[in-house]
Design goal:
elongated; nine-stranded mixed beta sheet; 11 strands; Rpf2
Length: 315
């Protein structure tokens, strides 16, 4: 028999409840970490990604030697960090002569590596290099729009997979309704070739259009970069099947003696036991009956009084 450990205090219990499976999952957090060797450009890229994901990201500053996502056994430390930080997306930066300014973006399921995309960063421009009105600066944590331009995202397998990973990385919280005033940023992803994507970050400027829907203008606020797809690994079939499994809607608890009608709406039934009228004691509390009984008693008392007098006279 395996021993089941239970949390000893309320803080641990609350943390476990947050990480437990839910019908409606929480927003995905991003883990950002460095490899054994990184370049100045790559450090700036990781810093900019952390700034864009601030509030939903965890950044490690130390170098990690044992992380090699595409090699067998090289993902153990990465999965451990994912479990400790409760992050389901990670961005890993490394630099080498063979693969300069290398970024590995991946997703995890149940803290196991789900899929991976390796890209190279070229023509990087940080936020500081763009000049614009600071009033147009997007707010931290705001919901972005994402535009994918180019047929490559629909025809090329590598770019199709890269599109899915970018959506999970950039979209933030999943919401049903959104106020138009709250839209202040757009990520524009343009497929330049079969393995190159230009990523730019733009702010929104709302102008009058003569209708209820305002006219929108894009102002580039940075960062921007070219991402060259180098390697990618699709998820395992068994892991993909487990990850795509959806929970059935919980059936509504049946309420007794309550039904729905198309015309009358909600209808309820009331249980009334059988009434045995013959066995019921009828209590009559009407005032007229009481008065008749009282008068009858008085008459009876007078009659008895008269009969006693007659008996006394006869004697």
């Amino acid at each position: 028999m395996l021993k089941v450990k239970t949390p000893r205090n309320h803080r641990v219990r609350r943390e476990l409840e947050k990480r437990a499976p839910k019908l409606v999952e929480n927003g995905k957090k991003t883990l950002i970490l460095h490899g054994t060797k990184t370049s100045g450009v790559l450090n700036e890229v990781l810093k900019e990604i952390y700034h864009l994901k601030k509030g939903k990201a965890v950044k490690f500053s130390r170098k990690n030697e044992n992380i090699k996502p595409f090699e067998n056994g090289g993902e153990t430390s990465l999965e451990f960090f994912s479990m400790k930080t409760d992050c389901s997306i990670f961005v890993y930066g490394s630099h080498s002569k063979k693969r300069p300014d290398n970024l590995v973006i991946g997703r995890t399921y149940d803290h196991h590596i789900y899929d991976l995309v390796e890209v190279g960063v070229e023509n990087f421009k940080p936020m500081e290099s763009f000049k614009y009105d600071k009033k147009l600066a997007p707010l931290i944590g705001s919901k972005p729009m994402i535009a994918f331009v180019g047929e490559g995202f629909e025809n090329v397998e590598e770019l199709k997979h890269f599109k899915e990973v970018l959506l999970d990385l950039l979209r933030g919280e999943v919401v049903e309704n959104l106020n138009l005033v709250g839209l202040d940023r757009v990520y524009v992803c343009t497929a330049i070739s079969s393995n190159r994507v230009f990523l730019s970050h733009c702010g929104l400027r709302l102008k009058k259009s003569g209708t209820k829907v305002p006219r929108m203008e894009l102002v580039e606020v940075g960062p921007s970069m070219d991402l060259v797809v180098r390697r990618h690994r699709l998820p395992n079939d068994s892991l993909k099947k487990a990850a795509m499994k959806t929970a059935r809607d919980q059936p509504k608890k049946k309420v007794k003696n309550v039904g729905d009608d198309a015309v009358e709406g909600k209808i309820g039934k009331i249980y009334i036991p059988d009434q045995k009228v013959g066995e019921m004691a009828v209590i009559d509390k009407s005032k007229g009956v009481k008065r008749e009984r009282r008068e009858a008693k008085l008459k009876k008392g007078d009659h008895e009084h008269v009969s006693k007098k007659q008996k006394e006279d006869s004697t």
